[in-house]
Amino acid sequence: MVASRKRRHLQQFQNNFFAHNDAAGRAVRNETNDTPQETRQEQQHKHISFEAATTGHLAVSSLYYTVPHSPAKRRFGEPESQDVHDLPTDDFDFSSLNDIDEDIGSGKRKRTAGVKFIHLEGRGDLAQTTCFCGEADPIYRCQDCHGAELVCLSCALHIHERQPLHRIECWNGTSFQTTTLKALGVHFQLGHPIGVQCVNPIPTFNDDFIIIDYNGVHEVGLDFCGCESAQPHITQLLRVRLFPATTLDPKSAATFRALEYFQMLSFESKVSAWEFYNTVARLTDNTGTRVLKDRYASLLRMIREWRFVMQMKRCGQGHHPGGIQATEASAFRRNVSSDAVDPGLNRGYAFFVEETAYKDFLASHYRVGNPQEKSTCSSHSAVNLADTRASRGLAATGAGTVDCARHNFKRPCSVGDLQKGERYINMDYLFFSSMRSSQDIHILNISYDIACQWNKNLWSRMSTFPHQYHIDHNHKVVAFFVPKFHLPAHIASCQTKFSFNFIKGVGRTDGEAPEHGWADINPIATSTHTMGPGSRQDTLDDHFNDWNWKKVCTMGTTLLHKYKAAIPEVEEHASDLKEFEAALDPDQLATWRKEIEMWESDRSLTNPFEVKARTTVTQAAVRLALSKAEAEEIEHGVHISLDNDISPSVLISSGMELEDQQRRVELEARTIGQHATDAQKIKILQHINALRRRISTWSRVQLLYMPYISCLRSPDDIASEDKVHKIQLFLPSSLPSSFPCDNRLLRYEWDLRQAQANDALDDLRAVINMTYHLYKYKNAFVRGQRANTHAQGIIHSAESRINAISAKYTAARDALIMLASKLGKNDDWQRILKPLDRAKDAVPLNHDEGKTVGQQNISWIWKTPGVSNNQEEGLQDSLRVEWCKARARAHRWEEEVQLLREEMRRVLSSFEWQARWWDAQGSRRQFSSPAFTEGAVAYAHRQAMLRRRMSAWFRSLWDAVPSWSAEPPAD
Does the pLDDT value for residue 943 go beyond 70? Predict the structure, then answer.
């Protein structure tokens, strides 16, 4: 009886409301006789309010008022009318509109946000004597329903019959106090549709079932279905999107949306489960006066199982006839647990290798006692210190991964724990495990920051692995690379032999994919370092999955951006190479081209990118010596390094590099002038911002070794300095003589500055030689305005390079003068490293300056140690190296465009293949229930449509580029 009366009142209210709105709409459109026609060109504004009528019903009243158009919009001759037109309706009261927060004449709106918040603490305008149902006093309102209307107990229970997790407030006469739906008598019945009463409801044990939602931890009244055809309790929970904490007699659960919310939150902000649980607990009670049942351990279990189940579902394993059981592999942490106590759920299904086989193989290798090979290149801690890392009490000192170098994807079965740093045996296992899913690849380009050492005995080490891990490398084209960022730390021969810039077929790949991935995953270490081994690996697997999925979703814009950036680079570098070759001797050029093509076919031949051996000390040689000395100090326990990654020598070396980059940015800014294009401005601004970030990062480490710098530079100085090249780095040489500084840092800079000056002289001689040859060839053979313009442009670039190198040498020498006085050095070094006069000293060997042969002097730069006495050989060597590099740059950009086109085409093909695969999954598995069959088909169809939609979206993005085509290139 009561329910029918409620429905009649609601129906009457809806009819009145919609009739009123229809009349209001016609009035605004001037379709009624009540509104004067002259208001057609005026702005109509409508104000609606809800209030309790005298009958106890919820009444709606509306006010329509007219304001004139602005002077720009009002037609000439129209009156400035401000008439207010009321729309009369039945049972609608306008008394609540006495105080409108609108100043109609001036158009100003009062700022009353703070008052409105206070207003919501009471019943406000919604206080009424009876509920809209007309029965009882309305004293309840819901924090999660839309609006703040008050209802009676009967209506509150009726509205929340299927919303047991909403938060209810009750008006106690003076204020609102929190209550729960369970306290009001709501029981959540499982196993039946809405409105169907269960004949045998089974309450949960002790009637204290806990549900974790994203808005709180709720104790609910929940009844399982005990009918004869009832499903198991966990099935009943899952069908209402509740994830049970246990499979037997569950006493708590989490909503699907809470688990999805936490999973996405952990991906983006790396929040821990503890932080999430405390957040929802505080949303439930933020005073501590209400003791909540602790379900943190249950949440951990549910999150872990949720991650695994979603992973299996998304990879289509739920459609496999064999289910999850048929899943095959590849489809720094404290020792707080063990594999037996906390085994992983994935077991090699995702990114971590199968733990048992991995550790068994490592144990067998350690029993043999094979020592770690020492590096013969740089003093690389990953190699030389692998056996010296402290690992006592640690289950792992880190993790190793194998990634796609082109697209930064985590590869399947390619992640594993490192017990003692990057030992070869660990990285070998991860590499061979990853390659098991890529046996059909013909060309294999392998990038590793210590590839120059790691590749030496790789195939002989492979023979100790089980046969299924072997690679048929004799029938593959295998090349080894060192990532571009790591390459400068290697010796000169490695920098040419393992460079991505010089070897054909790799485009503009940088090889730094693993480093990008660690930047995303490192923050999760605060959560995983105290986890058991299985929980940690499952969590990281889930994050790696999300990393790959985000890469897939952004592939359209990423490839488009790279492609649009590569097109002009191809044209620019091809033009530069053509102009360079036009200024060279054709016969010599043919010889060089033959040599480099032979080397590209057989890299065991002489490397054309290598210059002659130098007898002077270079910066690379000094860095190597300092690294060796630091390694010895570490072994003897006397090392002063205050940072795990940056030693004192690296600090000084990096500071000198930043100083050099400041000069480059300053020169680049002066070069573009005042009338730069937008593209030039964007390019220089990107360089400035990147340099500012590097200086800021370096300066924070500098404070560890030079704390007194804080007296000279505040943390805000770097950000506040308008010109990045004017930021003072405060290297030891630039400090005042009275300022304290560690003598070891002074000696490090002394050695590096000497090497920097020698390097600058070597570079200066090479460029001067090239410039001289260009001038000579231009004067002898170049004819015509166009050819002369091209040749002059190349010469101008070479002259700019000479200016930059001269400035670098001068800066190094000035620093040496300051350091010599602080270290008590004599003046012997100044006999070799003399002051450089750009116009007088930076000249070719046979620079006559208008003098006769008997009067000519050779510049001192050609008489320092290490300079070849054979002028022509040095000249040709410099030109050959510069031409090889220019050719490599042009070819790599051309390859990059070809690779991007093919990758874009393959992305679309991959989406189409995946869509067809999902189409076939719908009917792959036979279920006993039609409902399960329908769900499997629906999910497969949704996944197929998702791939097709992404394919269409990517295609629409790429079709906007005229030079791209989805069709494969013709043979």
Answer: yes
pTM, rounded to two decimals: 0.59
Helix (H, G, I), strand (E, B) or coil at 570: helix
Structure tokens at 156: 């509150």
Q: What does the angle CA 887 – CA 888 – CA 891 come to, to the nearest 5 degrees?
A: 85
* DSSP-derived secondary structure letter, 842: S
CB 765 within 8 A of CB 636: no
CA-to-CA distance for 707 and 301, rounded, in angstroms?
A: 47
Report which residue type is found at 575.
Answer: S
Tell whether the model's pLDDT for residue 764 goes beyond 50: yes
CA distance 61 to 51: 8
269: Cα separation from own chain's centroid: 12
Say whether 588 sits in a helix, a strand or coil.
helix
**pLDDT tens-place string over residues 12-54:** 545 554 454 454 445 444 444 444 444 444 445 444 444 444 4
Structure tokens given for 304: 């872990």
Closest CA to 768 of 809, 731, 727, 812: 809
Question: How many Cβ atoms sit within 10 Å of the Cβ of residue 237?
Answer: 22
Tokens found for residue 129? 């004597």
Tokens 């670098």 -> residue: 808
Helical residues (DSSP H) of 270-402, grouped into ranges? 273-284, 296-314, 355-368, 381-384
Plot region of 168 (φ>0 → left; ψ -120 to 50 → alpha; else → beta):
beta
Phi then psi for residue 708, to 5 deg, are -70, -10
Q: Work out the average pLDDT over 398-421.
A: 86
What are 353-369's pLDDT values in tens digits? Answer: 888 888 888 888 765 55
Cα 122 from Cα 118, distance rounded (Å): 8
Other C-beta atoms closer than 10 Å to the C-beta of 118 total 10
The conformational region for residue 457 under phi > 0 = left, psi -120 to 50 = alpha, else beta, is alpha
pLDDT of residue 863: 54
Long-range CB contacts (within 8 A, 24+) of 254-260 = 254/211, 254/212, 254/213, 254/299, 254/302, 254/306, 255/165, 255/211, 255/212, 255/213, 255/214, 257/213, 257/214, 258/212, 258/213, 258/214, 259/302, 259/303, 259/306
Helix (H) or strand (E) holding 140: strand 140-142
Cβ(896)–Cβ(566) below 8 Å: yes
Q: Are 245 and 295 in contact (CB under 8 A)?
A: yes
3 state DSSP class of 187: strand
Give buried/exposed letters for 776-795 (b at 16+ CB in 10 A, else e): ebbeeebeeeeeeebbeebb
Length of the chain: 971
Q: Which residues contact 176 (CB under 8 A, 6 or more apart)?
A: 121, 141, 169, 170
Give yes or no for a contact between 280 and 252, defined as CB atoms under 8 angstroms apart: no
Distance CA(494)–CA(563), nearest Å, equals 30
Highest mean pLDDT of the ranges 613-627, 736-750, 759-773, 910-924: 910-924
**Residue 352 DSSP class:** B
Residue 727's identity, in one-letter code, is I
Sheet holding 176-179, edge to edge: 140-142, 168-171, 176-179
The two tokens of residue 30 are 């001037």
Please name which of 388, 396, 400 lies closest in space to residue 450, comparing C-alpha atoms: 400
Maximum distance among all Cα pairs of the chain, rounded to whole angstroms: 125
Asked if 538 and 345 count as a contact pair (C-beta separation under 8 A), the reply is: yes
Please, how many CA atoms are within 13 Å of residue 588, restricted to the half-sphere of its CB?
17
Query: CA neighbours within 13 Å on the CB side: how many for 810?
Result: 12
For the CA atoms of the chain, what is the radius of gyration?
Answer: 38
- Whole-angstrom CA distances from 504 to 282, 403, 851 are 59, 21, 48
Helix (H, G, I), strand (E, B) or coil at 812: helix
For residues 526-535, b (16+ Cβ closer than 10 Å) or e, as one string? ebbeebbbbb
Nearest CA among 664, 866, 658, 620 for reference residue 756: 620
Range among 605-619, 634-648, 661-675 rated most confident: 661-675
